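Obj.: predict assembly geometry.
Materials: sequence records (below).
Method: joint structure prediction, all chains together.
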Amino acid sequence: MNTSVFAPWDDPGEKPLIQFRNVTKRFGEFTAIDNLSLDIFEKEFFALLGPSGCGKTTMMRMLAGFETPTEGQIMLAGQDIDPIPPNKRAVNMMFQSYALFPHLSVWENIAFGLRRDSMPKHDLEERVEAMLRLTRLEQFARRKPHQISGGQRQRVALARSLAKAPKLLLLDEPLGALDKKLRQDTQFELMDIQEKTGTTFVIVTHDQEEAMTVASRVAVMDQGQLMQVATPDRIYETPNSVYVADFIGDVNIIRGRARQNGGDGYHIDWAEGQEALTAASDNGFDTGQSCHLAIRPEKVAITAERPSDAANAVQGKVHDIAYLGNLSTYYVELPNGIIIKAQTANTRRISRRSYTWEDPVWLSWTATAGVLLAN
Amino acid sequence: MRRAFLIAVPYLWLLALFLVPFVIVLKISLSDAAIARPPYMPQFDWAEGIWAFLRELDFENFIFLTEDDLYWKAYLSSVRIAVVSTLLTLIVGYPIAYAMGRAPEEWRPTLMMLVILPFWTSFLIRVYAWMGILSNEGVLNQFLLWTGIISAPLTILNTPTAVYIGIVYTYLPFMILPIYAALDRLDGSLIEAAEDLGCSRVQAFWLVTIPLSRPGIIAGCFLVMIPVIGEFVIPSLLGGSGTLMIGKVLWEEFFSNRDWPVASAVAVVLLLILVIPIVLFQRNQQKQAEAEQ
Ligand SMILES: Nc1ncnc2c1ncn2[C@@H]1O[C@H](COP(=O)(O)OP(=O)(O)OP(=O)(O)O)[C@@H](O)[C@H]1O
Ligand SMILES: [Mg+2]
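Observations (raw structure tokens):
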């Protein structure tokens, strides 16, 4: 069996569907998007992640045609889309505010875009019904938007943007108002649609778990710039900066100074009177260069005795325990005051927990568990 | 107690300023004209009692209104003028309200002020000013003669055209303000959504902007039409003798003919005619309030 991995971004021959070329967008003095270049490929499920106000919606609006770049170009299928008005773009957007037409029923809202294409009545009805089924809105079809709940409204907005089966679908926080179960179902539904139709999705989300689940690639943004664009696992395992490591998931950041130790190995002097930590890194560091070691809590083991074979081991005492149901996070305070998080799966009942508050414990991790970052 | 008081205030207000005067007018309309002071019979007399008084009332004046075709023609003409001028006001007012709604945020209070500004001077003075503008030697004719567009002055004053101009001018704010209020509430992202789904600008306007400003349009139309049906000053100052409107007829019955009973009958019928649009207007307002909840 030969399943080729979907990775057009690694193929230099592949032409991107969307291309941001040094795009800058200013609102007056304020720079919302700062000299940003990005390629998004056909059939991708591309997630934009970033703190509030970093410019995610602005990027979407430029793709949909509601904002024009102050500088730079956006290409869609090799064509500069600047002169093309929104209604002529094969792009549909689901608005963050939903933007449902209050004077039209749910049914008519979904049919709105199809009517513009003067689709035959029969096909149109079929399509709307299919969208209603997909978003489980059948029994609300005749209601007006103000007569349904927030989550239902969000699904109407989603159905409306999906209805036209556009080449590029922009979803601005499509699932934020849904409960976890429905959100997961809809996520899989979206991935399914994406696989069936081959539509390219660009999705904005605040929920990194969601980005990890659905996306082929994730872009982490900050203040109008891209911090890192990579597949979810690479973003998680090999973040390129402390910012990305910190933004995605939970992480321990240990500051220190690198000392070369032959090959790609490094010693990190991180605290007075503490043994140096060891880490491997492909990025070159000079001896004496300040660095940050980022380690995910689940990669830190917690034991009562010092493990004999661990590359890194530090002692501390349990400062706090966060019980998350399936997992427990131990906040372990080291003698110098630094707190390191270690996560373990709760395979036993909570009453049989091995460690409790103020217990002395050892934390350990391997040389390749962490990522060594310059900044 | 406090609640009852709060509810009572508006009702007392209605009673004193609407219901009581209406009953008086109704009573006069059922009386007979007389050369007396006040000029109608019967007068209520405690000595004769209420029954003797009521027996003398009749519907003669209302029957008279149907016999002389002046009255129904005046009613009809009033309604027609009201409808036409309401449409004209809408045609002029909507674009203004729309432009206000799309103007930059910081300009809007100023624009709003400009719309309301005419209310700061006397209505009569403004109508007289229009007489000065529209008359044969008026500002408008002089300007048109000067530019050479016309060679002889146009007769505008004392024609229906002058009445329409006067009405549209006077009632324009009543059209603009409710429409502006509706457009101001309209979420701009709805237009974007419409465009995103394939509408041109014009289609988005017809399919989204117009339907969503409909409550404002309806409110504006009623606010203009209801008072215009009974309008008296504008037709008598700008319309000359050729314009037949019920307000003018009413005035003449009262003051020229001094036939208070017939004049009152005219007023009662006018009120009945107005009840229909007023009820419709209330329904519109109520529906809108419900939709916003
Ligand atoms: N029309 C505008 N005029 C001025 N500033 C704007 C305008 N639109 C957006 N901005 C600014 O640009 C920045 C980026 O806005 P944007 O809506 O893209 O953020 P976002 O990443 O979508 O945030 P959120 O996650 O909160 O939705 C913000 O600081 C915002 O204040
Ligand atoms: Mg946003």
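Conclusions so far: The two ends of chain A are 42 Å apart (CA to CA).
To do: check interface contacts against the pulldown list.
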